[in-house]
Write a structure and sequence with these properties.
The structure holds 2 protein chains of 2 kinds. In chain A, helix 2 links the parallel strand 1 and strand 2. By secondary structure, chain A is an alpha/beta fold. Chain B is an all-alpha fold. Chain B has one domain. Chain B starts with a helix and ends in an 8-residue tail after the last helix. Classes of the chains: A alpha/beta, B mainly alpha.
């Protein structure tokens, strides 16, 4: 009898330990950063819907937040307990930088779809805008170019017009410096996500919403934001120029704003991960729980959650925007107007892209030290 | 009662963190993310705990600087320049007591001014635009480079090397790698901890290992006597202490400028104000001056952090995250009207400053005795701690490689008298110098700049400092 009881206890222990997993959420930034805070807040609520499991956060900082996402693509995703936390900047980098990662190889657990609000000082001179530059602000720059310049024939014309009307100021890598410069009037236009806009721009008596980018819908269109009605870029454009925006510049704008805003914060696992359903269900339960959602919204604002298969469908919608012309125009505007060293990546146009792609295309020559590093790693492994 | 227990727990935790070489307020606060949710039942207690950690965890730099001649990770610890020679002369307790007392009194004075008048600073902070911040950084580099070292030409080279290393990473204008030689690891910049440890800690450890004996000879005075001497020294050099506090408070008040600036500017100002005295060989003024700065700076860093939600220093950035987790959105109107939040902030910082000051002064005489222990007994522990701190970035061989390269650089600079503080300061401020230069030259023309009185005043100070350093060359040889 004693042996049976021991065997039952041991079996129960083994069974329980097999079920209880420690899931690691990899954040591509340092502790205290925006995405880290967002993840901490969400995990705190999500943990209640994953009883018996442990959720941990791992910070994996690196230049432009890319190394962690590359590491997930190349290595970490093959561990079934690792979840990648990506943000909008990763989406912009994916379109025009030499990165390894590929959203098509992943499965969505859930993502937050949000809008970005562009504010201006009341005394801002719209023929001489002063705006902080950063690669994640390409959609804002393109939106401005469209609003300020109307319909032009080529990206070259937009570049000339943009440069004549916008002082694109480099050196603002930290949000705090930029926000203070806007408050002091050194910058005349700034942009934030809705929660940060309410906190940093809305309280200024001398600032107002200029335009917003709209909220991506399941059918691929962008709808007006109910919080800032009538101020979507497309609506203001039509009011000013008498027709809806269209043409190459607009297509490139839609491409880049969608990749930044629709996947502003997202959880991913490797395609075929056996834990995906468990994680998706937990997130779904959490999203239906009024208490959990209220706690999250209180800290990060009211954003739409797109979970599981809907997340994959949303990702596929975004991929359909990646046409050769739109991508080339985006890269040209980034290079010529914004001095960002963007590259055109033909491989993301591959029609088979929406299925799993195994090859990683090297788009940049590997340097000497990197080769030594790779060699060292190969010996160690 | 809960508030007092929380205060004591936070202070104790901060003291432990502060005593670890290389750790400090930022490290201590980052570690709190794991259990900050414990305070969800009363978030105001969380505020008290965090502020107690901020106030009590700044002692690490002082102990490492005076007892071991090694700066901490959070500031360049100018205190070590004169504090370490004092320890070698058997006056470690006196130096530590003077340092802690100065730091505590300045923390209380500037803390009171900060928290009592917090909402009044909004207009003041708006006067400091991009050109003024740029000029102020130039002033700090001039302080550490020229006033604090007699080899001014080598200081210029050290500053250039520091700036160069600090700029390794991403070009903010083009977004492409710069000076990385294709090595992805440094695309995020050379990390601070291995650089500080290599530049300062390992050269000192190697020197101690070669000496093979204890740091200090046993002095003539008893340690209790030294405690009183240290307290009296603060009164004797009260104007140096006050000046240091004022400079630190001012640096903290300006958003985004780090701890190293306040320390070294205070030290530079102390040296410049006492031109007939010798520094670098154990001058108590050289301890009291810079130590006035650190707690004052911690207090005033809360001004931009609380009023605008814009971190005044690196620790404040982490604090911002922790407070957000507790449900406090700094920089909002709700926070400005939350008197209980302000009370918790003040209670945590002020009382933790008092408790830390008393505890440290009482225990200094025991801790200082480490300087009589032969180096060989504790250097493995020290090396272990420092290496652990250095490999927290990736844990890979690259962390060790940077540590090794920085150690070679540190040994070279120490031997040939290239100012290591100047190099470190330039390294820390490189990104800021570049960012502000880009911003200033893009937004402002020369015509705009000459109409800004504050900018002109600070630039005049830079020129005066240069003239002073050439006309009356510093005797300080510390490198």
């Amino acid at each position: 009898m004693k042996k049976i009881i021991i065997a039952m206890v041991v079996s129960l222990g083994i069974a329980t330990s097999a079920l209880a997993e420690t899931f690691t959420f990899v954040v591509p930034q340092k502790p205290g950063s925006g995405t880290t805070q967002w993840t901490e807040i969400v995990l705190k609520e999500l943990a209640r819907f994953m009883p018996g499991h442990t959720l941990t956060l791992r910070n994996f900082p690196g230049a432009r937040d890319i190394p962690a996402v590359n590491a997930f693509q190349n290595e970490l995703r093959f561990d079934d307990t690792v979840i990648m936390v990506s943000h909008g900047g990763n989406g912009v980098s994916f379109l025009q930088e030499a990165v390894d990662y590929n959203y098509a190889d992943w499965e969505s657990i859930g993502m937050m779809n949000l809008n970005i609000i562009v504010g201006k000082r009341l005394d801002a001179d719209l023929d001489n805008i002063v705006f902080a530059s950063k690669s994640g602000r390409v959609p804002d720059a393109m939106g401005m170019a469209l609003l300020l310049c109307g319909k032009l024939e080529s990206i070259g014309e937009y570049t000339t017009c943009f440069k004549s009307k916008v002082n694109w100021v480099p050196g603002f890598s930290k949000g705090g410096d930029r926000r203070l410069a806007f408050k002091r009037g050194e910058l005349t236009v700034d942009r934030e996500n809705p929660a940060a806009y309410k906190k940093h721009i809305a309280p200024n008596a001398d600032a107002e919403v200029w335009f917003h980018h709209g909220v991506l819908q399941g059918d691929g269109t962008h709808a007006d934001d109910v919080n800032y009605p009538g101020l979507q870029m497309e609506i203001l454009y039509e009011q000013k120029w008498g027709e809806a925006p269209s043409g190459p510049m607009y297509d490139a704008y839609v491409l880049v704003k969608s990749f930044r805003d629709a996947m502003q914060k997202a959880f991913w696992v490797n395609a075929g991960n056996p834990n995906a359903e468990l994680l998706q269900n937990a997130l779904l339960e959490m999203s239906k729980d009024p208490e959990a959602i209220a706690a999250i919204q209180k800290k990060v604002g009211k954003y739409e959650w797109v979970i599981g298969k809907e997340g994959n469908a949303r990702r596929d919608t975004l991929m359909s925007f990646v046409t050769e012309d739109a991508l080339r125009d985006l890269v040209e505007f980034s290079n010529e107007a914004l001095s960002i060293q963007a590259i055109y990546k033909e491989n993301i146009l591959n029609p088979s892209y929406l299925t799993v792609v195994e090859d990683v295309v090297e788009v940049e020559e590997v340097g000497l030290l990197q080769r030594v590093s790779n060699w060292f790693k190969s010996i160690v492994s | 009662m809960a508030a007092i227990l929380t205060l004591l727990a936070g202070t104790f935790y901060g003291l432990i963190i502060g005593l670890i070489p290389s750790a400090g307020a930022t490290t201590g606060l980052v570690a709190l993310f794991g259990f900050i949710s414990f305070f969800s039942f009363d978030p105001y207690l969380g505020v008290i705990f965090c502020m107690a950690v901020v106030a009590s965890s700044t002692t690490g730099d002082t102990y490492a600087g005076i007892l071991l001649g090694i700066p901490g990770a959070n500031s360049a610890a100018a205190t070590m320049v004169d504090g370490y020679p004092l320890a070698q002369q058997g006056r470690a307790t006196e130096a530590l007591t003077a340092a802690i007392t100065t730091s505590t009194l300045n923390g209380l004075f500037w803390g009171t001014l900060t928290f009592a008048l917090l909402p009044q600073y909004i207009k003041l902070i708006m006067y400091f635009g991009i050109p003024e911040l740029w000029a102020f950084i130039l002033l700090s580099l001039a302080c550490v480079g020229f006033v604090s070292n007699k080899f001014w030409f080598r200081s210029i080279i050290a500053i250039c090397v520091g700036l160069f290393i600090g700029l390794i990473g991403i070009d903010p204008e083009t977004n492409i790698d710069r000076f990385t030689l294709g090595w992805d690891y440094v695309a995020d910049g050379v990390q601070l901890m291995p650089f500080v440890a290599g530049l300062f800690a390992f050269p000192e450890i190697i020197a101690g290992w070669r000496r093979g004996e204890s740091i200090a000879k046993i002095g003539e005075g008893t340690h209790t006597q030294q405690t009183w001497e240290g307290i009296k020294a603060v009164w004797t050099y009260k104007w140096d202490a006050f000046r240091g506090g004022a400079i630190g408070a001012f640096v903290g008040f300006l958003p985004g400028l780090g701890g190293a600036m306040g320390d070294w500017m205070s030290y530079g100002a102390t040296v410049a104000s006492n031109p007939d005295e010798e520094f670098g060989n154990g001058n108590m003024r050289g301890v009291v001056g810079p130590e006035g700065s650190n707690n004052a700076q911690k207090a005033t860093s809360m001004i931009p952090t609380v009023l605008f939600g814009i971190p005044g220093a690196s620790f404040a950035a982490v604090l911002l995250g922790l407070f957000a987790y507790l449900g406090f959105e700094l920089g909002t109107q709700e926070i400005a009207n939350d008197t209980r939040f302000f009370d918790s902030l003040t209670f945590g910082f002020m009382w933790a400053t008092v408790i830390t000051g008393i505890v440290c002064v009482l225990f200094n005489k025991h801790i200082a005795k480490i300087t009589y222990v032969p180096y060989i007994y504790y250097f493995p522990l020290l090396v272990g701690f420092i290496i652990w701190a250095c490999v927290q970035y990736t844990g890979g061989w690259e962390d060790y490689a940077i540590l090794g390269l920085a150690t070679c650089l540190g040994l070279f600079c120490k031997k040939y008298k290239f100012s290591r503080p100047a190099m470190l300061m330039a390294f820390i401020l490189a990104i800021k110098v570049e960012a502000l230069t880009l911003q200033m030259t893009t937004i402002y023309s020369i015509d705009d700049l000459v109409t800004r009185p504050l900018f002109l005043v600070i630039m005049s100070l830079v020129v005066m400092l240069l003239v002073f350093s050439i006309a009356k060359r510093s005797k300080l040889e510390y490198a």
